[in-house]
Specification:
Layout lengths: L1 E2 L1 E4 L15 H14 L3 E5 L5 H13 L4 E7 L2 H11 L5 E8 L2 H8 L3 H18 L2 E7 L6 H14 L3 E6 L6 H14 L7 E6 L6 H10 L4 E4 L13 H10 L1 H4 L1 E2 L7 H12 L20 H9 L21 E2 L4 H10 L6 H17 L2 E2 L1 H11 L7 E9 L5 E8 L5 E8 L2 H13 L4 E9 L8 E9 L2 E9 L2 H21 L8
Helix pairs in contact: 1-2, 1-11, 2-3, 3-5, 5-6, 6-7, 7-8, 8-9, 14-15, 16-17
Bound molecules: 3-methyl-2-oxobutanoic acid and zinc ion.
3-methyl-2-oxobutanoic acid binds next to β6.
């Protein structure tokens, strides 16, 4: 059985999903969970893209010990040197360097001739190999590149010091048969190919990312790249949990597996979904809420008689267990700490105390506190509070269809300002008041609400997407009151825009 390396790019390609902008402490939380999940490499970000990304990558590189940490770089000396500064503290720092090789990218995006692309790729890999123990080179848009050119450039970058060669399907264009044929071609036409590992990186524009990745594995690649829940640029990346479970369930077909701790699958998926604000569709394979729900009577009858009649993946395999200890009013610090550890929450004493206090407050209102509640609270209390903070909220609403809200917010300089406004509903009234307080237009692009468990005492989680100062950002708010959660999510999104503005961003390649 071959072991396939898992290269997770949730924190880089995944973070390129529209509206997703994670705080550094959220990235670190995801990084710890990825480490627990057992990924081989995590791509922590693109250090040269912004000061914020640099610091987040550096922090992750210094703290993660069980796997390699990678950073993305364009093919310039400045990007490579910046990445090295961010990554040099990692146990196995890896540079992921890319350059486009397709005719359309070379001519219109890079405005470079193929021989210039070849020279640039070789020079940058040579420089990177002097610093990094592992250099991964990606031929961006490989699947729309000329195969002969690709074979020649791959041979040259291997000679220059690349240890991993990645052939991304950057625009999600290829098919399983074509992608596996490409890898076979490269193996046959690159004389020094035995010196490197081959890697697959697929996007999901045609809904084929997982199928293409599995085809690449069948064609012999050593590494597969993707993200948790398949989040990423446009239609997203290949969903790593789907690939790993497919390999586990169909060992007979693929003869390959990963070192992932599959019981961490659901937890990892939930954490990423919560922190990014990207919902997991209920019918999503492996981690969707309905993935193990049997609705039809015939199916239910079959599963009761023998689970394998309709259930090819057992819920336990992905970490869904039905007999969890329920926490509530009488649970003490010790039990709570244990549950947090099982949920993979790593916290310093202060964060733990804040979380425990929030938990205790919740038990006053809610009889049973679920894992979902704890995760929601943890993501709410974690990290430094920066930017605007909700100071007070008052709402009056009746059946006449006009709601009036009074909102107080604490500004970053500590002063408190208050305003009132009306709206057709309570949420609209709150958001209009906040817009007045900010004194600038805010466009609400999306508003979602979900509960952490069933029952009227459940916590409300509100996710919004807003446009402010020309930036689009997601925000999240958690509270046992939906209107307070709505207010918090709005301010959270505004704070993320403000943080983003502190850093200069550059566009990445794919
Ligand atoms: O999809 C892609 O081509 C990328 C590159 C940066 C490797 O993400
Ligand atoms: Zn990509």
């Amino acid at each position: 059985m071959r072991i396939i390396d898992v290269f997770d790019t949730t924190l880089r390609d995944g973070e390129q999903s529209a509206g997703v902008n994670l705080h550094a402490h959220e990235k670190l939380e995801i990084a710890y969970q990825l480490e627990r999940y057992g990924v081989t490499v995590m791509e922590a970000g693109f250090p040269a893209s912004s000061r914020g990304d640099f610091l987040a990558v550096q922090d992750i590189a210094n703290r993660i010990k069980q796997c390699s940490v990678a950073g993305l770089a364009r093919s310039t000396q400045a990007d490579i040197d910046t990445a090295w500064e961010a990554l040099k503290g990692a146990v196995e720092p890896r540079l992921h360097i890319f350059l486009a090789t397709s005719p359309i990218h070379m001519e219109y995006k890079l405005r470079m001739r193929p021989d210039e692309v070849m020279e640039t790729a070789v020079a940058s890999v040579r420089h990177a190999a002097k610093l990094f123990p592992v250099v991964e080179w990606s031929a961006e848009d490989a699947t729309r590149s000329d195969w002969d050119f690709l074979a020649r450039i791959v041979e040259k970058v291997i000679d220059a010091g690349a240890k991993v060669i990645n052939l991304p399907d950057t625009v999600g264009y290829t098919s399983p048969a074509e992608y596996s044929a490409l890898f076979r071609y490269i193996r046959e036409h690159v004389p020094n190919i035995h010196r490197v590992k081959l890697s697959a990186h697929c996007h999901d524009d045609l809904g084929l990312a997982v199928a293409n990745s599995l085809a690449a594995i069948e064609a012999g690649v050593d590494q597969v790249e993707g993200t948790i829940n398949g989040i990423g640029e446009r239609a997203g990346n290949a969903s790593l949990e789907e690939i790993a479970i497919a390999l586990a369930i169909r060992k007979d077909v693929y003869q390959a597996s990963t070192n992932l701790q599959l019981q961490q699958t659901v937890l990892t998926s939930r954490l990423v979904s919560k922190l990014t604000g990207m919902p997991v569709p209920p019918n999503k394979a492996v981690v969707g809420a309905n993935a193990f729900a049997h609705e039809s009577g015939i199916h239910q009858d079959g599963v009761l008689k023998h689970a394998l009649t309709y259930e090819i993946i057992s819920p336990e395999m992905v970490g869904l267990s039905s007999n969890q200890l329920v926490l509530g009013k009488h649970s003490g610090r010790h039990a709570f700490r244990e549950r947090c550890a099982e949920l993979g929450l790593r916290m310093d004493d202060k964060s733990f105390n804040d979380l425990f206090r929030a938990f205790k407050e919740l038990t006053e209102k809610k009889k049973e506190v679920t894992d979902e509640d704890i995760l929601a609270l943890a993501t709410d209390v974690a990290g430094e509070r920066t930017g605007y903070e909700l100071q007070m909220l008052h709402i009056s609403y009746g059946s006449n269809g006009v709601a009036t809200s009074t909102v107080g917010i604490r500004k970053p300089d500590g002063t408190v300002v208050r305003e009132a406004a009306t709206g057709q509903g309570s949420v609209e009234a709150i958001y209009r008041t906040m817009e007045r307080l900010l004194n600038e237009p805010v466009v609400l692009k999306d508003y979602r609400i979900q509960s952490t468990s069933s029952g009227p005492d459940s916590l409300a989680e509100v996710y919004v997407k807003v446009e402010y100062h020309g930036h689009v950002a997601n925000g999240r708010g958690v509270d046992s009151d939906v209107l307070l959660a709505s207010a918090k999510s709005f301010l959270d999104a505004i704070n993320r825009v403000l943080l983003k503005e502190q850093f200069e961003l550059v566009a990445t390649g794919g």
